[in-house]
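FORM 7B: Structural annotation worksheet

SECTION A. Query
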Amino acid sequence: MNQSSEKFKILGNVGFPNPIESFEVKKTQTWGLDLARAIQSEWYYNLGGGCRFYTQREQFLERRAYANGLQSMGKYKDSLGTNGDLSYLNLSKKPITIIPKLRDIVVNGMANRGYSVKANATDKVSQKEREDYRKQIEDDRLGMDIAIKAKEQLGVELTSMPIDKIPQTKEEQQLHLQLEYKPSYELSTELAIEAVMNDNDYNNIVDRMIKKDLVEIGVACVKTRTVPNRGIMIEYVYPEYKIQSYTDDPYYRDCVYHGEHKRVAISDILIENPWINTPENEDLKERLMFSGGAWDEHFGIPTNERIKGYTNVLYFTYKTTRERFNKIKEKATGEKVVSPADPFFDESKIAKKDFKRVSKVEEILFEGIYVLGADILLKWDVAENMARPKSNKQKVCDQYIMVAPNKEKGYIDSLVARMMSIDDLFQITELKAQQMIQRMMPDGY
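SECTION B. Predicted structure
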């Protein structure tokens, strides 16, 4: 293990690289490696015997244990022994708790609340079509008497819909617009969203796990991404292994980076990254082989959680900006042609003023894969197929979607967390009653 400890390093007080550097600098492997080292230092540097990642993980796992009625009874029995002697105590080994029952009631109540996907277009063209349809219905309602006489005497339809379906009042008109009016593009959007959810078993698996996390831990997270040949993927993320930059927003919308800690087989890493097997990267391969065992020794991972042949990998995203340049050429006919331009394109150096240089700044996401403890950056590239809101093409949507309703100054509260202290009082009271009953009974001699 001496050899592995020499190649295992988690440095503290590592600063983040300059965020105002140009995009050309940010996309280099050196800048991405500096960012990964800073994230590792912030979450995994164990100053004073503990690190931020495992402290949060232990807190969440303790809440899950209480939610399942599996908390340890040792801390209760230690307070009941006589001068620390527990040899004569014959008490219950399993807790008597109602938290699992209450948890299931709340989660089932949340899961049984039905919902339907509603898509409403907000662009100007769709709004104008909706307004024209509303005015048409209103004209039919106001001129219904004339339309009825024209139908009876002349046999002519003056309304846009059958007379018996025309709303009679203004309230019915508003209700008709909400329930009956549905353009094809809104309907197709709703069907597409439902198809994506069904393909990912969102309603059957992911949705229930999210609600369970909100009740037990107080925070829930999913990851959305687009995979070639598979489409849109919605993946559940365990909050115990999720990291992100600090924020006070309960929806984590202003986080600069997000990450997910995973235990990955070393063989899979070598298959996906064959460049590590080259002779010039022999040192990286050696560090990778020792990283898993050295990590377990460094953080004192329990023996039952250690798996040989595995290492710890951080999958993370980083939000930044990129300036994109285009040149506009105007032809003699007045036609304008827009084409990508070099960042250093200078229109002033061109004799003919046929070209014009324009640019726009947009948000982008970098994707990185970093082997923790081994200081190996496996991937650092601009994310492909980035999702953007339709209302603002310069913004980018994060891959990780999180919510923590009861988040305050970094502390995440939950229903189970508020019940833990009351449950501890119940356990101690019950064990004390058992102890008193045993002392009152004859000892048999």
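SECTION C. Observations
The mean pLDDT is 85. The two ends are 57 Å apart (CA to CA).

SECTION D. Sign-off
Analyst initials: ____
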